[in-house]
């Protein structure tokens, strides 16, 4: 297909009168049954669920931990390579298509749906944890603080967004350039041909649904933990599974309603206001915190991040075998892979009309840069308070990871107001991520429809909330991490095959 081929079809849009708009019964019901079995299993016999998931976790990390590292680095290099190649000027759509959303709205939705809720949870907890127990060397030292911040940048930087960008690019190309349905299986048409419409294609889409459900369940569980901790910190609300399940149920009403309302009315509005609140809280901490220390930390950590980029990317802890890599880096890589289907699909959905080069630059660089600033402001504040003032944040992290943000805010003026803003932010990120997830699950189970029905999105909203609740009740943070790694493993191979298929399509269409 030539670049100016006027036969390029419109992206698939749902027509409720067409058979293709309805759910794919195999993908929908098989995925729903898998999720239902998990929820019932966790409710009836949580101990055995934990045993099985822990066995899967141990086997995956011990045997294939190295593969996560190699694969994720490859995904990043591949995405950048495509953008820098001759294919970078290709538009994701017809040659005269223009972007549907402003740059600010586009970047706001990218960031909030991608990892906002995780950054709220880990931006202080993780650098503090690494300061106390670094991957190498002694804890509670200046070297540990610098090393810890470097690994925080590493975990939330280019590698994560490389996964999202690659999946989103492949989906956007096949949807808007080849006019195919918004399904993960559509990407494999150059390899499988019409077999994507049969059992193989269904299996690919079911894997994507499976990864999405558990990736989202992990994130929503973290959000519930942090909301519960914030309410306890301010109003002495008890911390426990019952309260967290209630929180999930209440927020589920919000995100399911927003998803049913649609992107324009729901997700875009919430994403914009969440970013406004995030910028406000970040500016507050930057102004009232150790500003010079934050700027120095941002500068030096960014430099060491790029200097040690490949060393960190491929470090396996093969000699000491402390298990640090499995608990942190491999967990993150698995979490991002599990998020790949839904973040990638959502990013593709909002990116029509942008060139491949623009898409990769925006989806890869802008969120990474914002994450670095966010981490430097929040993590730098906590480290500065702990190192120079003995603020007790380290003790709080040892007791309850979710309390880190609120303990840090308590050291500054108007802690009640800023803590409320922090809870609003968690809820905003919670809702936006789940919005995107329910929307994408609706697409994946409705033959790639760009407008899945409200009923389908509502069903998936309830399912995601149920999975998050079961994970929290059965094992808390450990169960969340274990589920994410287990769900991501098979989808890693799907993304690897996706790279080959996308390159094959680009060569066929633009040789």
UniProtKB/TrEMBL annotation:
It comes from the Archaea. It is a multi-pass membrane protein. Pfam families: BCCT. This is Choline/glycine/proline betaine transport protein. Its main location: membrane. It is found in: Cell membrane. PROSITE patterns: BCCT (PS01303). It comes from Methanococcoides vulcani. One of its GO terms (cellular component) is plasma membrane. InterPro entries: BCCT_CS, BCCT_transptr. Signal peptide: none annotated. The chain crosses the membrane at residues 26-44, 64-83, 104-125, 153-174, 206-227, 239-263, 275-298, 330-347, 359-379, 416-444, 456-477, 483-503. GO terms for molecular function: transmembrane transporter activity. Keywords: Cell membrane, Membrane, Transmembrane, Transmembrane helix, Transport.
